[in-house]
Fold this protein.
Amino acid sequence: MHREFLMGNEAIAMGAVAAGVNLVSGYPGTPSSEVLETVSKHRPESTYVEWSVNEKSALEVAAGAAYTGARSLVTMKQVGLNVASDPLMSLAYIGVKGGMVVLVADDPGPISSQTEQDTRHYAAFSKLPCFDPTSAQEAYEMIQEAFVYSERYSTPVFFRPTTRVCHGYASITVKDPSEYTEHHPEGFQKDSSKWVIFPRLSYQNHKLIEERNVRLAEDFSAYGRNHIFYETDGIFKQRGIASGGISFTYVMETLTQTGPLRLLKVATPHPFPEKLALEFLTGLDEVLCIEELDPVIERELTYLCGKYHLPTKIYGKLTHHVPNAGENTQDSVRQNILDFLKDSPEDVLPASASTYGGHAFPDNPPALPVRPPVLCAGCPHRASFYAVKAAMKGRKTIFCGDIGCYTLGNAMPLDMVDTCLCMGAGLGIAQGVGHIEPDTACFAFVGDSTFFASAIPGVVNAVYNQADMTLIILDNSTTAMTGHQPHPGTGRTMMGDIVEQINIEAVLRGIGLKTVETIDPLNHEAAVACVKQTAGKPGVKAIIFRSPCIAVTRPSGSMHVASGKCINCRKCIRELGCPALTIENGTISIDASLCTGCGLCSQLCPADAIHVDTDVEHISHDTEASKGGNGHE
């Protein structure tokens, strides 16, 4: 054993490697993406890793591996689980042979997602076990245990870290490579009575699942990570707190200030550890539940109080003692606990409860600055949006957006995203509007990665049902928002193989599109002309705006403003919104540290006052230079 300073996602990945995982598949989505990437860096030669085309495909690949007895891991974020839910629900009835962990990273806040959905509900809905880690260290250890439970009960299991577990860093104890488990699958055994999902089999397996979950609830009551911490000095002997996930960590930090309470830690919210929870509730008058996102623990404890006629009052999100939306923080949890204890009949709060680290909390701390996300300086998506906007000026239009960097095209002054629902939905929305409002020019924007993930069926639907719309594919040669992962159009895989690129134009023509144009959006005049010509044609047509992400291939040089020529009309700022364009001392200036030299502003300038500054040099950088991102897939 040794210690390493790791991100939570890195710890989860190293735990999976230590457990002998044989296959890892997934689709990128913050906050889950680093798990698969870390496995790829540290995997044994025998471990297979892939970025799948979407979450549904990823889960099916992992299921196939688990059918052979292999240990498999599939990674995604919470909205990605919606895409994978079809095979998941059936897989819950079929079961697996090898350990299969379905890692779904939830995003309270939401910080980088469309929804605040809670994967613990999916666990109950699908009747699958769920593991909910509280820290990077526990996540490292718990995922190894999750594989064991999966194999013990022949079922896939959920592993549900949240953003602060995924992206927090800690010094943790990990195994040496010599201590890793070596897992050797025995291979797929043909048995249609087990692996083919007929209605009669589903009925029989449903009964077995219900019986299994009763046993699992008993098992989880003895599982060491579900635990009751008893108060040691009896200050608040009539009150308790129930928590799980990162919220439990916040609770533990707060209790060092308030004094101990009886505390229930729930590491497996489904099946709920009923026996342990009853032991916790015995003798308590009131319990405060602190959890993210929904009142899962709260509902379970309320149900148990009713089932066993206990007098304990349960407080939490349902009673509005804890906020029912947004993520918990150390400060919010501390305040929730102080409010819960301030009218305690047993005793007064310790003096330390009003301070933290020896310092009193200010009554009105200063607000954090608001920094809305924007398209990067030089982003080709800005040029694409602006070309369509210029070409369609004066016409009745709708611009249906999608999930990715280009969602930021909604910001002023571009204002080019009228709708955004989920991945690939812009195509269907554009079709629906067009069928009702035939006088509206309908556009659907989608990125290259999202095109492969979820947009192709929408194009097929449009062609088959004779829609009249223009598809805009923003091809920047990467999955930019989630950290520049490869996709089928990049020509490389996570295994390091160079493969044939899947040609988007060929796919569109194969579907039946007659008009498919490819243009560089940074050539503004040509891009505008292309949009005008293409959008005027009937039926389904497509324009591929192809220009690499500036974090992948950054142009050399920077633009500068010739002050003697600038007429201070500010058209560049008013119409583009590029963060490199600023106003200094009342005149237009370009921040050379941000400018990539894309040249779009120079093509708009009516005074020809913006030119390339040949004295400024930039160093090109590759995909590793800009990790992170803030969105789904």
User: Anything to note?
Assistant: The radius of gyration is 27 Å.
